[in-house]
Design brief:
globular; mainly alpha; disordered N terminus; transport; 2 domains; Putative MATE family efflux protein
Amino acid sequence: MKPTALRSTPSLIEGPIAKTLFFFTLPILCGNVLQSLNGSVNAVWVGHYLGEAALTATANSNAILFFLITSVLGLGMAATILVGQSLGAKNKDQAKRVVGTSVTFFLSVSLLVALCGLIFSRRLMELMHTPQDALPLAVAYMRITFLALPFQFSTIFLTMILRGAGDTKTPLKFQMLSVGLDIALNPLFIFGLGPIPALGIAGSALATLVAQSVSLSALVSYLYYKKHFLCLHIGEGRYLRPDPAILKAMILKGGPMGLQMIVISLSMIMMISLVNHFGSETSAAYGACLQLWNYVQMPALAVGMAVSSMAAQNIGARRLDRVQRIAKVGIMFNFLMTGGLVTLIYLFNHVALSFFLPEHVNALPIAQHINAMVAWSFVALGVTFVLSSVMRASGAVMAPLIILFLALWCIRLPFARALMYSWGADALWWSFGVGSVSAMLMSMSYYRFGPWRNAHMLATPQRGTT
């Protein structure tokens, strides 16, 4: 069997942009939806059958997990761009050095974090003021979650490396395997069957551990069976020695990318604290809207990820003319996909929210009002995601971070806080549009006039080799 060559993955540096970007985006979007559905199904098993204390335990543990994943996500995005630029420049040697450096780095970090987590799980839960009735459950769940962390980090790394190489279908196939196993094993390990003991909440975490380890092993085996051109073989151990230039780029460029996620998540926490001023009904309504908005944002996030990989390869190939068109097509897709979802929400606002709130509660009409004022803003925010992804693909990572920080922390939150006492809760809902439009205008201005085209990921560009 011949090794899988560059031509075995869809070419991102030639051919029709719209068609290529659409079929590159679709598996990413499906994967995001799958991941959200997996979390929702697991929450149903725990919440409905193990009680409120167990659900509280998983919520506290998942908050830690979300922070850890967010912390390395930027580094994975940097690896995606480095691989994409290397392959666009037809420099397979550099691409392999990115893979080898990333393997060593991600594996070392994940093992260290897992060890620390196993030792300090109880202390972490205590620091989060986990309720006493949920504390032992949270510790049990957290320890198994930390055991699964190396598999989760490795899966994230491989998924992003494959996206950088122009392949989004393979990660989706094995994500489907992981999600399917997780959903099937949850009730089996929670309640037990035959020789399998009932493990309660620990069983839910164990199901995730088994699903992720099996899926990762299958993915690695598949890549070696197919002789993927980025696989490292005997005699190529030199690639596993961290390359200082690549490692520096991953940290210096990936750090700001990860900070963007932290900026977003912290701003949402601050917004929830403002919403809580208006009572439990408004908070419940806002919580229901958040569930819906998670799905509304998925198309823009998926398009952004696809645009980043596609732009990176074209930047590596010095095809800046295509980069400009990729940005335009990405924005068009955002308007079509996110705009389409928002239109459906406006047409079926009541029906969409009734999935999360009972018909008879007062929170339902409040949620409809919130949705009517906020939903459109995600279309504007999607433009920011797309343009930021293009700029990051060149190595310009600070400007998108600063723009997001200004829009969320210097415009949206101050706007909401300053006017909430005179406008009421409507000030909070208007602030979403004000922040999103501000971010979009700043991103468009920097994309048009900023020096992002002169940015680079590596300080010293490497000569291309095939």
